[in-house]
Amino acid sequence: MPEVGAQVDPQILKDLLSAEQLCRLLGTAGQRIEFWESYALLRSDPALIAGEIARLSGMVAEFRRLAPDPAVLEKLRFLRSDMGPLVQHLRQFFAVLPEPVDPSRLDMLIVFIVSSPQGREAAVRWVADPVGCRDEAAVRIKIMTALVEAYRRALLEAHVAASPPREQTPPAAAGKEESPAPEPRGPDPLLGAIRLADRCRGALAGTPIRAETWELVCLALSDASGLRKAVNELNELRVRGKPGEFAGAAYAFRQMVGRVREQHGLWVDRLSEYAAGLNLSGWDDDTRGMVIGLLVVSPRGRARVERWFQRPKESLNDAASFLGRLITRAIKALKAHREGLQEGSPAAAGGESGVAFD
């Protein structure tokens, strides 16, 4: 585990970047893995994983269907069997702390905890005695949050540095582009989507199901009633369901998210890679998920992004302007949501939603 208070270690940063790349590549191959799993695989056998990243990257460049190395998948199965239960209990423990861990920072925090013997020993102690260790864990996590932030910033800077330089679009060409994303009239449906997405996370607390923000926002904007029904069912069965009923409903929810991921995952990964090179202000885990979810459900938004893909260098200015407006919209909606939670707003708790813009 990196030393708390120390400067960013170049080797750890390199490993984190490689772990991100492995997540994307295996995800493209249909094998979704968590960030801590990717990092642990890399640390357990650097040569094997480096070779797998190079091999899969080559297949991507040649537009070939990705097929993960069976040796890597076997290591992943063993890792999940060995450490998966501890990580699941750790997530449950974090959810009941006096100050719950920010979801956008949780994955990297888990990476740093489970990647060292001392961290794993502490985790085992915490989950074995959650009440007795609550104060100790809260203090330690608060200290480690600064470390997490340092590496999150370093990762962002590395992404920006690795992106191609931006080219200026001629004024004449820029004038032909569509105007930036309009502000919605009346209540922003994105606010309702955020509220419903938060309810989803609460309903899934303590389960191994992981849904990305863009997936939840996409579902909330495209099928609010269906998503709300699924969330209500999970909450009801958690309290009053018979043995196995909650697990069945959770599995059905995972399938719902999986269909969104299967349909749009590759497109979202490509957009994320492109946006990483734009040096966008405010482009963090929260706004990224909200903006991408909004674009996925908008035919006009998807068409515009497709034009960026077709002419990536020529579209840099348009992409930066368009995404910048959507980020501002997402920040406003997120602020309104947080203010509603602080004030105990019924709407914030109830998960209102609406239709997506087009």
Q: What report would you give on this structure?
A:
With 358 residues, the chain is mainly alpha-helical. The protein folds into 2 domains: 10-161, no CATH class; 173-350, no CATH class. It contains 16 helices and no strands. Mean pLDDT is 81; it is low at 163-181 and 346-358.
Task: Note the main attributes of this structure.
358 residues, mainly alpha, 16 helices, disordered C terminus
Q: Helical segment tally? A: 16
Strand content: under 5%
Number of domains: 2
Reported for the largest beta sheet, the result is:
none
By DSSP, the count of extended strands is: 0
What is the string of SSEs from the N terminus onward?
Answer: HHHHHHHHHHHHHHHH
Q: Unreliable stretches, pLDDT < 50, 5 or more residues?
A: 163-181, 346-358
Radius of gyration: 21 Å
Summing up helix and strand content along with how strands pair, one would put the structural category as mainly alpha
Distance linking N and C termini: 46 Å
How would the global form be characterised?
Answer: globular
Helix fraction, binned, reads over 70%
Instruction: Name the average pLDDT.
Output: 81
Can you summarize this structure?
The chain is an all-alpha fold and 358 residues long. The protein is built from 16 helices and no strands.
Question: What's the SSE blueprint?
Answer:
Elements: H1 10-28, H2 35-44, H3 46-61, H4 70-95, H5 103-114, H6 117-128, H7 134-162, H8 171-176, H9 189-204, H10 213-222, H11 224-240, H12 245-276, H13 285-296, H14 299-310, H15 316-343, H16 346-350
Helix pairs in contact: 1-2, 1-3, 2-3, 2-4, 2-5, 4-6, 5-7, 9-10, 9-11, 9-15, 10-11, 10-13, 11-12, 13-15
